[in-house]
Amino acid sequence: MNTDRQPVLGILGGGQLARMLTLAATPLGVKTLVLDNAADACAGQISPLIRADWEDHNALLAFAGQVDVVTFDFENVPVTAVRRLAKHVPVYPNPEVLAVVQDRLSEKKLFRECGIATTAFQVVNDRTGLDAALKAIGVPAILKTRRLGYDGKGQFRLKTLEDAEAAWSSLGDFALGHGLILEAFVPFDRELSVLAVVGRDGQCHTWALTGNWHIDGVLSLSLAPAPGNESLREQATTLVHHLAKRLDYVGVLTLELFVKDGQLIGNEMAPRVHNSGHWSIEGSRTSQFENHVRAVLGMPLGDTGMRGHAAMFNWIGSLPDEKAVLATVDAHWHDYGKQPRQGRKVGHTTVCAPDLATLRMRVGTLAQALGRQDQASPLTKHQGYGPAN
C-alpha cells in the first residue's frame, strides 16, 4: 500500500483519458501511476508508467502495492486482472461493471432491466443463425461483435439481405470466440449522451445533456447543452441514475442514446470518462476528469453546472493548424501526444461562448480557417441539429 502522504491513483490503460485524468489529479494533490502493455502509451509522457501484460500477476501485485485506489481508462481490460487487483486495493467502478459492458448482449439485457428501451436484437453464433436473425429483425441491420468493438470497429451494416454473406465474411470469425449480435438499425433523429458521476457516498450529479455527431462510427463533434426540451434531459438523467444504482457504481458513467420520434433508445454505455464529455474541461465548473478523481478517492464532488455553451471537435488521424485554433476566442487546444495514424484520435479542441449564437459564430470562423466546414456544419447550418446521419 502506498505510504506517501499524497494519495496515488492507479490507472489501468495509458491512453488520452488516463492522460487527462492525470492532468486533473495533479492540482488536487493526487499522484497517478499508469499500467499499460504499450511502451509508448501517451499518458506515460506525464505520469509514471509500468509497462506490463494484463495477465502478469507479479506486475499487478507490484502495481497494487503502490496505489491507494484503481480505476481504468478503457473497458477492454481483462476482467480477471481487475478482479485480481480488487483483492488487494479498492477498484472503482467495480469489476463486475466491466463484466457487463464487455458483452453487448449483457449490456442490452441490463438496459431493459433498468427500463432503458433498446432496438431489437438477436444473438448470432453461426452462419445459419445470421439468416435466422435477419428473418426475425429484417434489414437494415447492423452485425456487431459482442466483445472488443469500439469507435465503429467490429461492425458491419447490412442494407439488404444480399449483404449477409459479406457480413459473415467480415465478422464470422468472431462468432466462435466471442459471439455476434445483430441489431435492428435505428433511423434516429439525433444522438445524445448523458454523463453522471457518483461518489463513494452515493451522491450523484449529471452534466448537461450533450448532442453528438459521428463520422464512420467515430465521434466528430459534440455540443453542450444539447438543444431540445427539458423533458428529454430529465428522462436521460433518470435513466443514467437508475443504471448507476443498479450497478452500485462509483465514478463517471456515460450513457449514449438515440432519439427517435421523441423516444430515448439506449445505444451503449461506457464505465469511464468519455469522449463526448471532453467539453467539460473548459465548459463546466468541474470537468468529468476532476470529478472522476474526486469520486473514486472519496472526495466531495464538484459542481457540474455549465459556464455557458461549448462545442468539442475531435481531431482524427492528424492535428489541424494550431495557430488557427489559438487565434479563436475562447478556443482550447488539446494535443494527446500520439503519433498520427489514420482513424486515431490525436487531440481535440473545445470552443466556449456565453450563448449559442456566439458559439455558432466562433465555431464557423474556426471551421472556415481550418477548412473543416463539413465537420462543423451540424452546428453552423442548423438550429442545433441536422438530419440523421
Short précis:
The protein is an alpha+beta fold and 389 residues long. It is built from 13 helices and 17 strands.
Structure characterization notes:
With 389 residues, this protein is an alpha+beta fold. 32% of the residues lie in helices and 26% in strands. It has 13 helices and 17 strands. It has helices at residues 16-25, 57-64, 79-86, 95-101, 104-113, 127-137, 164-177, 230-246, 280-283, 288-296, 322-326, 356-370, 373-380, and strands at residues 8-12, 31-36, 49-51, 69-72, 121-124, 141-145, 155-158, 180-184, 190-198, 204-206, 210-215, 218-224, 251-260, 263-270, 309-316, 331-335, 345-353. The strands form 3 sheets. Strands 9, 10, 11, 12, 13, 14, 15, 16 and 17 form a 9-stranded antiparallel beta sheet that branches. The protein has a 4-stranded parallel beta sheet with strand order 3-2-1-4, with helices on both faces. The protein has a 4-stranded antiparallel beta sheet with strand order 5-8-6-7, with helices on one face. Helix 1 packs across helix 10 (288-296). The longest helix has 17 residues, at 230-246. The radius of gyration is 21 Å and the shape is globular. The N and C termini lie far apart (50 Å).
